[in-house]
C-alpha cells in the first residue's frame, strides 16, 4: 500500500557492469541497481506504506537496455530520459533500442538534443532543444513525449514556462526531495549514487530521507562555483585520482 499524495523519484545515470574500469561520479554498479530494484518490487507487492516510486534513468547510455530488461523481469516500469543527439553513438542507445524500450511499456522522456544547460540559451536555441528532441522521440515511440529531465538540473522560470508552452508537463529537476503525486510540473528527485549506504536507500523508500544534505550542497556550489564544486566532489569521491 502506497501513499498516493506523494512520491519518490529515483534518478540513475549509468548502471554499468562491475567490470567497467573507468567509473563516473553518478555511476551505480548494475548488481547494486538490481538489489535496489528488487527492494522496490518487493515493496510494491507488500502492504507497506510509503511514497509511490518512480524510477528514472538519464542520458540514454547503452547499459540502459539491461536496466529495462531487469525492470520488466521484476514487473516494474521506468522512465528513460534520452539525449537525442547521442543516439547511435558509442556506448549510447540506438534509435531502435529506444523504440524497443517504449514497446516494453517504459516511458521515454526528453533530456534535450545536446544536454546543454538550458538557462544559457536564448529563446530560439531553447525551443530547438525542446521541440526537436520531442519530435524525434515521438517519431521513434509513437507516444506523446511530455516529460523533460533538465540537463544539469539547471532551470529558471523562463525555461519552465517555455517547456510547458511546448507540450511538456513534468520537469524533473535535480533538486532533492519528495514530489507530489501524481507528478506534475517542477519535480524533485533523489539521485542514487554508489556512495549511498543501503540504509539510506531504504529511508528514501520509506519516505523519511533527509533533504538537508542537498541544502548544504546547493550553498557550497553557489559559493565556490559549479566547476570547482565538481572538481572537489570528484576528488573526495576518489574519481579525481
What do these coordinates show?
- With 241 residues, the chain is α/β, with parallel strands linked by helices.
- 40% of the residues lie in helices and 19% in strands.
- 33% of the residues are buried.
- Strands 1, 2, 3, 4, 5, 6, 7 and 8 form an 8-stranded mixed beta sheet that branches.
- Helix 7 crosses helix 8 (226-236).
- How many helices? The count is 8
In percent terms, what proportion of residues is strand? 15-25%
**Could you name the CATH topology of the largest domain?**
TIM Barrel
**CATH superfamily heading of the largest domain:** Glycoside hydrolase/deacetylase
Radius of gyration: 17 Å
Sheet bearing the most strands, described?
A: 8 strands, mixed
Distance between the termini: 45 Å
Short overview:
The protein has 241 residues and is an alpha/beta fold.
Task: Write the SSE topology.
Layout: E1 3-12, H1 30-45, E2 51-58, H2 64-73, E3 78-82, H3 95-103, E4 107-110, H4 123-141, E5 147-149, H5 157-165, E6 170-176, E7 179-180, E8 185-191, H6 198-206, H7 212-224, H8 226-236
Helix pairs in contact: 7-8
Observed structural traits:
241 residues, alpha/beta, TIM Barrel, 2 domains, eight-stranded mixed sheet, 8 helices
